Amino acid sequence: MTPALLTAPKLNTSSAEALNRDCFCRTLNRERLREQLEHDPSLQGLMDNISQTRPYLFSSTVVFLSGQMQRQICATVAAIERVAALPGYQAQALARADGIARRAWGPLGVCMGYDFHLNAHGPQLIEINTNAGGLLLNAALARAQETCCDELDWAFSSPTRRDTLRQGVFDMFATEWRLQRGDAPWRNVLIVDSTPDSQYLAPEFELFRQLFTQHGLQTHIADPGELHWQGGQLLYQGTPVDMVYNRLTDFYLQEPAQLALRLAHEAGAVVLTPHPRAHALLADKRNLIALSQDEQLAAWGASAADRQLLGQNVPSTRLVTQAHAEALWAQRRELFFKPVAGYGAKAAYRGDKLTRRVWSDILAGDFVAQALVPPSARMVEVDGVPTDLKFDIRAYTYAGQVQLLAARMYTGQTTNFRTLGGGFAPVIAVPELGEP
At what angle do helices 202-214 and 46-53 cross, to 10 degrees? Predict the structure, then answer.
């Protein structure tokens, strides 16, 4: 399956790296973005809300990616999900997870996100997310770009810009329903997150609400504390809930506010997606250790082709332990430290920035150390001044297939949506010289 991004005809003039360095074009048409975000009357005012409260959510330009990098990202995602289906891999991943992750009701988990940095060896997997935000926001953003110069006219007249992704997103949820409920009637969806109005990507909840409503489903956005487990049913405002689109970062539903949802999932009384099992098998940072160990992958039965891909594109990752503390501290400038259950780059540290106090916190917690892969750079114009911004590439996926590639541009150690000129940006695939 080809990801939904903009693909160019053969170019003879430049490479993706050169365009990221030299193209200063501002391609975002903000009025067109308003039309995309507010295509339904119920969404009126969404663009103004974003502009006022989240001014750095969207960049005004695009990021270029070589066709070869695009193909490698797609192949790496597919290889990881093949490996994650192996019995040996699943056994070790589930053994360290909360018991609720052993529940397998059929759904695969919607809105997976694979984040990559790029270097000369190809795309390097930084982390995997089970409830990656931004899919519908980026779908709207990609359709709000316009030609900025004659040299890039090909990029914005491609027929692949036709809107098929929104239907594909709904079909993804419909597939999840059928995997657990078969042909039973599907009546409603509840979008759940803690204090949803305060979430940074809350505008996207409205886009999902409209998408589900458009397809005839009663849809609400709720805090998990508003749910009740009663009589073998999950209730919201007294009505049984059919499906929960889960945006929570309490991945195993362990907090008291998640009790009703946890009980409903354990009983199979609700279609929950994404779910704890998907997090345990894919997004737990300790999986990066297994995915970067060739001998272990071979012992589990991973194919030689998949092992080669993962060897190229998953940086070496180790568990931080007291036994290895001295060696890890000595190597810290070449490492990036991440909490096992972290998300959104919270409590993640570049080794060369570590203080002894932070190092003590890392040793006392559950962290992994991953080989440092610096992000690529995109030169943009900010207030008339050429400015280098870092970026990563997020692959939004379902069932091992890439649906959309998007970039996140920023300054600092990690993505933050607080950078002038930064934010989400569409990805344009540029064939290298010699590619068809």
Answer: 160
Residues 6 or more apart in contact with residue 277 via CB below 8 angstroms: 94, 101, 102, 103, 104, 109
> For residue 58, which phi and psi values (nearest 5 degrees)?
-120, 130
In three-state secondary structure terms, 67 is helix
- Are 314 and 128 spatial neighbours (Cβ–Cβ below 8 Å)? no
Q: Which pLDDT tens digit goes with each residue over 333-376?
A: 999 999 987 665 567 899 998 999 999 999 998 999 999 999 99
157-214 pLDDT, tens digit per residue, is 554 444 689 999 999 999 999 999 999 999 999 999 999 999 999 999 999 999 999 9
Write the DSSP string, 253-310. --SGGGHHHHHHHHTT-SEEES-HHHIIIIISTTHHHHHT-HHHHHHHT--HHHHHHH
The DSSP element (H or E) to which 138 belongs, if any, is helix 135-142
Name the one residue in this structure whose structure tokens are 């695939």: 429
Where do we find the tokens 């949803």? Answer: 196
Angle CA 329–284–179, to nearest 5: 170
Which residue(s) pair with 303 in the sheet?
Answer: none
Inter-residue contact 394 to 377 (CB < 8 Å) = no
